[in-house]
Amino acid sequence: MSEQAVPAPRYGRIFQHVPHPRIAERKHEKPVLVEDQHLGLNGKVALAVTAVVGTMWAAYIFAVVAFVSLPAAISSGNLTVIIAWVSSNFLQLVLLPVIIVGQNIQGSASDKRAVQTYKDAEAILNECLQLQAHLQAQDQVLDDLVAKMRTLSAGSSS
Questions:
Q1: CA 60 to CA 48: how far, in whole Å?
Q2: For the chain, is the Cβ count within 10 Å smaller at the N or the C terminus?
Q3: What is the rounded end-to-end Cα distance, in angstroms, of the chain?
Q4: Three-state SS for 5?
């Protein structure tokens, strides 16, 4: 029975790493933040108004303005007028800036989370690339060991 020479497998060739196209795209990007959004004229006006109204100072000023009309509402003796003052003058005027302040805080926290997530993804990607390099190095060692074993096996059978 004749033995045929079997080519030595190259373990490094079993798997060929092909980087995902997104990896190259990410190198040219940064995390998307609220401040990066494109704004037209209306967006710029809205942002300016929000910046002014969305402060606690605006809430305090609106509360003072609302309290100016409180004596008139109370002196009317009409429950409907008093309820209208509470809902229209006080709650709407004061809660609007407070809600905007809260949303600004949430937006800032969201931006921080986006940056952290982006950095985490970059770290994971880097770790995966290092793992890929490690596996390729191990494949080379395996290839060398298999070649050495074949050499030793061929030498002992002669």
A1: 19
A2: N
A3: 16
A4: coil
pLDDT digits (tens, 9 = 90+) for 17-56: 777 888 888 888 887 777 777 778 888 888 888 888 889 9
The span from the CA of 21 to the CA of 23, in Å, is 5
100 CB-contact burial (10 Å; exposed 0-12 / middle 13-18 / buried 19+): buried
Structure tokens at 154: 């061929």
The radius of gyration computed from the CA coordinates of the chain, to the nearest angstrom, equals 35
Q: What is the dihedral of CA 40, 44, 47, 49, to 10 degrees?
A: -130
Q: Which residue has the tokens 């770290």?
A: 123
Does the predicted model carry a pTM greater than 0.70? no
Condensed to tens digits (0 to 9), the pLDDT of residues 80-111 reads 999 999 998 888 889 999 999 999 899 889 88
Residue 95 one-letter amino acid = L
Query: 11: helix, coil or strand?
Result: helix
* Residue 17 phi, psi (nearest 5): -70, 125
Q: Residue 99: what residue type?
A: I
| Maximum C-alpha span of the chain | 117
**Chain centroid to CA 130:** 23
Q: Smallest Cα–Cα separation from 54: which of 43, 42, 46?
A: 46
